[in-house]
Automatic annotation (TrEMBL):
Entry-linked InterPro entries: YjiS-like
Protein name, entry field: DUF1127 domain-containing protein
Residue span, YjiS-like domain: 25-60
Species assigned in the record: Lutimaribacter marinistellae
Source taxon at top rank: Bacteria
Amino acid sequence: MAATTEFTATHASHTDSLDSWIGALRTRIARYRLYRQTVNELGALSGRELADLGLHRSMIKRIAIQAAYEATAR
């Protein structure tokens, strides 16, 4: 009986570990999708539209990184 209880406890910790890993993977995928969406949307704007927003084309990747990774980490 002790072996069964020990096995169950070990199994639960492996399940928790796997759930944690899957959760972290989902978070990374969601952040990457937000990054790509931001890059694509800003990249589709003309130079004039970017200038109206106070942006330059060279700023797109940095802004996308901030939107996806820095803002969601808080």
